[in-house]
Amino acid sequence: MTIWMPELESIPGPRYRAIAHAIGEAISAGTLAPGERLPPQRRLADALGVTVGTVTRGYAEAEHNGWVVARVGSGTYVKQPALRATFDMARLPSDDSDVIDLSLSLPPPHPLRQQAFSHALSAVSTSPAALMRGVSYLDARGSEGHRDLLTEWLAELGMPLVSDELLITQGGQHGISLVLNTLLRPGELMAADALTYPGAISAAQQAHLKMVGITFDEGGMSMDALEAQCARQPPRLIYITPDQNNPTGVCLSEARRHQLVALARRYDIWLLEDGVQYLPVEQRGIPLYQLAPERTLFVFSTAKVLAGGLRIGILRAPNVLLERLATGLRAQSWMVPPLMVDVACHWINQPAARTLLEWQTKELAARQTLAADILSGYQLSNRSHGSNIWLMLPDGCRALELCERLLHSGVKVSSAEPFCVGSTPAPQAIRICIGAAKDQQALSSALATIKQSLTQPPNTPVTV
Ligand SMILES: Cc1ncc(COP(=O)(O)O)c(C=O)c1O
To answer: What is the CATH number assigned to the segment(s) 138-338?
Structure first.
């Protein structure tokens, strides 16, 4: 019989969930081996000072997550090899690399992600309805049932949307690209913050659009600069990430949200609001799709909350545009594979989805605090629960040279260059994706390397 005893003090939330979480962690760390028996419930309850009912619920949740199996009259056992394979998959390709890659905006890794995926796959593979959907052609916008379920999930995340106004896309990037290709004609003008998400820049280029970068400050996009642009040549669409600019983390102030909507109405401009970079609801401002539902398209995706590999996004559009967008989606790929939508829906339904998001939210906040400590004295811009940090370099330091030097020292970050819209000059700054580090220790080590590099004199060779 195993002598495994969980340590619950550092795990937040209800005790039964903490027990389930500890079981998942122990399996992932190899402390609990496949086939091993969990402690008898009464013994664990006594040791932890909780009721037997709490342990029963914790074990039931672990079983629901697919980690253990209860055998009547015998006890609860860690599941055998099929599950083990998913733990091995938890090793990211970069685990073997000497480089700590902080150049991609990823949610922090946790074994629950692979485990929830595994469980969702199993559930789909045994659901007659999901199997039937998986081999059928469905509505280009996604089945009504899928959209209803995603709507419930979005409401839980603090995004009150209407199922009838949604299209399911293959990720947020697809949503952006679909909107630009469907609503704008080649040569038309799209405006965005002068520094913005590179995927939007690339989608605009693919759609042969012209782009103009609007200056911004700590309150977000400058409405004076936007108004001046509208007076010269109004854009057909404004792409914006109001809660958290990528890369700088800047949030558009409430007053400017109202001004933006007023300008969009005056000049008849579409608004493309991107909320993919997830923040807890208390950290977000009022969404543009609530302020101007008649002209706002909103993109969200499962990438930063569940996993990027699912490729499931949600596009909210005004009623008058739905059929046009559905036609565009149909022309591109007929529909999103129902299989992946079912996987996402089964994942969302698991308690593990909530546990993972709660953990991730706290983890990102802890990582932001850690980064602020290590890089204290430098000029940082970030959101307290965001997954990126924007570091303005001290005088004399050049971003491209620093990025190269850091890569030699085993840390990968991005310069400002990929985020520059049109001919916006690149500021001397770097984006550090703190979520991408495998744990806080790796993050500390990378940040210490960055800090040390900032104090070293640049070493640019003289070339003619
Ligand atoms: C602001 C923003 N929008 C959209 C995306 C793309 O999301 P998805 O992976 O769902 O296509 C990203 C990805 O990092 C992003 O940062």
So the answer is: 3.40.640.10
